[in-house]
Design brief:
The complex is a heterodimer of chains A (115) and B (110). Chain A has 115 residues and is mainly beta. Chain A has no helices and 12 strands. The chains are: A mainly beta (115), B mainly beta (110).
């Protein structure tokens, strides 16, 4: 079946530091890949996505590249801010696993950015 | 345009009690989902619906029932609550590109 593995947190960084959150996946078909962000007390919001190999998703200074050869979709940001403190979820949607277009989520990585 | 809304926001139940969580969306989406979020486990799909009048089981459906009588509403029911159902519950609806999530319901079962 499908699965998503992401690095465990929490990750604590100083403001303006470089961020990488690793994500790897297992899927039977040709998945689309997503990063969602959850701010404290809120629901999940889509941060970025990529629908095919070598696509790069980007938003708000965050980037992730769909690497089929390494089955990875690592999230990066060159300079984090305190406002980026949140929980980040990697997810995949595999169109070939039947109806529902369901998402499979990783366990989430908590990021804390300090001044 | 309110997006996806959930009621209630918080609830405390005693073991064996029943309750219904309501999810509503005003985006005319066909697909709707119920997830539970537990520490260290990410989000797990409970049930989903691909359109009005349809429901299907997700990854962790036991102890829950759902109904989709109207396109805009997706109800999640707990007939006899158990402490293992203490969790944060999220509803989502989907267009062709992404899922949109509600703010969540925090449920505690004592």
């Amino acid at each position: 079946g499908n699965s998503v593995t992401q690095m465990e947190g929490p990750v604590t960084l100083s403001e303006e530091a470089f961020l990488t959150i690793n994500c790897t996946y297992t899927a039977t078909g040709y998945p689309s890949l997503f990063w969602y962000v959850q701010y404290p007390g809120e629901g999940l919001q889509l941060l970025l996505k990529a629908t095919k190999a070598d696509d790069k998703g980007s938003n708000k200074g965050f980037e992730a590249t769909y690497r089929k050869e390494t089955t990875s979709f690592h999230l990066e940001k060159g300079s984090v801010q305190v406002s980026d403190s949140a929980v980040y979820f990697c997810a995949l949607s595999d169109w070939n696993t039947g109806g529902g277009n369901k998402l499979t989520f990783g366990t989430g990585t908590q990021l804390k950015v300090e001044l | 345009n309110a997006g996806v809304t959930q009621t209630p926001k918080f609830r405390v139940l005693k073991t064996g009690q029943s309750m219904t969580l309501l999810c509503a969306q005003d985006m005319n989406h066909e697909y709707m989902y119920w997830y539970r979020q537990d520490p260290g486990m990410g989000l797990r799909l409970i049930h989903y619906s691909v359109g009005e009048g349809t429901t299907a089981k997700g990854e962790v459906p036991d102890g829950y029932n759902v109904s989709r009588l109207k396109k805009q509403n997706f109800l999640l029911g707990l007939e006899s609550a158990a402490p293992s159902q203490t969790s944060v519950y999220f509803c989502a609806s989907r267009n062709t590109a992404e899922q949109f999530f509600g703010p969540g319901t925090r449920l505690t079962v004592l």
